[in-house]
Each structure stands twice: as C-alpha cells, then as structure tokens.
Amino acid sequence: MNKYLAVLPLILGLLGAGSSRGADAPPAPPALPALPLATQQAIDRIVQQQLSAQNLPGVAVLVSIPGRGEMVKAYGLANLQTRLPRDAAEPFRIASITKTFIGTVILQLVDDGRLALTDTVSKWYPTFPNGDKITVDDLLRMRSGIADSLDDTYLQELYANPTAPVTARQMIDRAAARAAEFKPPNTQTRYTNINFVLLEEIARRVAGEDIRTLLQRRIYAPLGMTQTVYPRGTELGGTNRGYLFNPRTSAFEDLTVLNPAGAGGAGAIISTLADLKRYARALCTGTLLTPGTQARRLQGTQLTGEPPFVQYGAGVLKLGRFCGHNGTIFGFSSEMFYLPEQDALVIVSVNRLDLDDHSQSTELFLLLTRELFPQDVNW
Fold it and tell me: At what angle do helices 194-207 and 98-111 cross, to 10 degrees?
C-alpha cells in the first residue's frame, strides 16, 4: 500500500516461447569503486539526521552512480528488542514497488499477444461495477475510477489482526461493494491499490499460471534475482523487523509478521537492495519489454493531489526525471528510483511505517537525491 508524499524459489525456466525478449540471464552488474569520501560523508550525514529527526529504527541505502562510484550501507537497528544492527544484505518488504513487477508481467503478456490494453475488466469479472468500461490500461495507469478497498479502514483491520486470512477475491468484492463511490474511468489519475490486485488476477487467468511462477520465469530468473519472493506465508525471513510507532503508548510495535495476501499484487513482494539494483535498471530501460511497449509505459500523467513532477505511467512512478516506485506496508517504507541521464540508482529501505500510512522513506530519498543530483531534481 502506498501514498507517495503519502525463501528463494528455484529457477523454473526461461521466458516463454514467442517472446521478443532475451532469454539469457545477464551477468551481475559490474562492481563500482566506492563513492568519493566527501560524498559518502554527505550521505552519512543525511541518513543520521533522518534517523534522529524521524525516529527511525533502521535504514538501508544503495547509491550507484557510474563514473562516480557506489555506496551500500545500513544504519541503525534491524531489531529493537535484541539491538541487532541493520544489515544491508537482508530482505525487506518492498510494498508498492510490487506494482512494477505486476505491471511488467501484464505488459509482457501484451507483447506476447495474449492480452490487449483495451480489454475490459468485465472479460474476467462480468459483474464488477463499470467493468465493461474499465480497461487493462486504466488499471495500469491508475485511471480506473475504482474506490480502493485497501484503504484506511482496511489498514485498521489489518493492524488489529495482521495475520487474518484474506483472498484477492475478497478484496475485489470489497471494492465492488463501494460502486457508488466509483468515478468515471479514464478521467483522473488517482492512486488506487486494488487496481493491481485485479491486474495480478488477470495475469494469472490469462497465463494459466500462479503469479509466483510467472514472476520467477519472466522477471527473477532472466535478471538473476535470487533473493526476491512473493511470499506464501506471513513471515519475512532474515533479521529485519518492521515497526509501527504507537503515539498512545509512545512505543514501537513489531508488525513484521503479517498476511501479505490483502496487499497481493499491490504490495506483497519481499526483496533486497542487491536484487532491486538489478531490477530497477531493467524496469526503466526496457530490458523486459519491447521498445514500443516500454516507451508507452513511461508516458505518465500527474497523480491527482500531487505536485506536477509526480506522474504515473503504466505501473511505474515518475518523479521528474526519475523512474521507479516507492512503497509502504506495515513496518516498512521503501524507495527504488533510477535516473536515466546518469544511469544512476538510489534505493532506500526504512523499517518503520505507522498507521497513518505516511512514508518514512520519502523525505530521506528527496534529501539524498537533492544532495547527489542537484541539477536533476525539482524538489
């Protein structure tokens, strides 16, 4: 779940027959030398300031800038109870960055001729409100007009019972029950999580495969991502714990264990800095799609209620010149963005998210990018 300013599966095979994308997994990205000491010190200063100012348990950061260098570092604590330091190699919940994965699978199915962007939701859900008017493209671009079932009410329910059983169908039915609140499709770009729960289900039905198999075969394996998983259970794995700060008790609560099924295609995936480094560049340069589809994917429109530089494409968030996504889910806030002009990456994970769903990583990302790329930011 996300508002902007608001375990290892086996390799199951290569890309499907008929795909126009390459099948061989690329080698690991070349190791870069360390960033200059002054740059490292600037990053340290910004992160340490935010750790204190925002009362963050821990932070992990990856900055990669060809021609300048790279820095991968963790700060603070992974576990407040045991005082275990945060480790930059450990997995974390990436939340709404998941949407970019689901969007990629959908667009690959379009490239393969198995799905059309103009197909409507009614093809798979005949009784869904406005289903004959809402297209796959509307879902991808946050222009469906659907009232979100992954809303504040759901967050309160999840907080009360983080491991409660829930299915994608239940979340879809929950959205359908709010039909009176729907807006006309393709009239505004409004961030709506349930769009990507629907898209996950559409991908599964079109391909006839479990979403985990689709992700493994079409994204993880081709990119050599060995630490990324769409979880089946409630555990995160690794050493990181995710926290919520309760203002009533002035104490942190551990919300690491939760049922990811409610977020589903909108926010369930777990990954690492190293895997997201492989993925972010592929996502934004089009490695996994045909050139025409990639070009259309990156065409964005301003998100309702956000500054002009915040735009949404087809399952991808555009922040000025940056391409990627961010995400929030109980216990974790994350940022993953790529700057094409410099072939640069900035990835941030914070192990805190509170009940207000306000990102704990966004301000840190904005401060870091303002320091690192002053000529390329407009915030």
Answer: 40
Domain ranges of the chain: 37-372
Per the CATH hierarchy, to which homologous superfamily does domain 37-372 belong?
Answer: DD-peptidase/beta-lactamase superfamily (3.40.710.10)
What CA–CA distance (Å, rounded) separates 329 from 357?
7
pTM, to two decimals: 0.93
Q: What is the pLDDT of residues 113-134, one digit of tens each?
A: 999 999 999 999 999 999 999 9
pLDDT in tens, 174-214: 999 999 999 999 999 999 999 999 999 999 999 999 999 99
Cα(53)–Cα(67) distance, integer angstroms: 32
d(CA 73, CA 29): 18
Confidence of residue 140 (pLDDT cuts 50, 70, 90): very high
Q: Is residue 106 scored above 50 in pLDDT?
A: yes
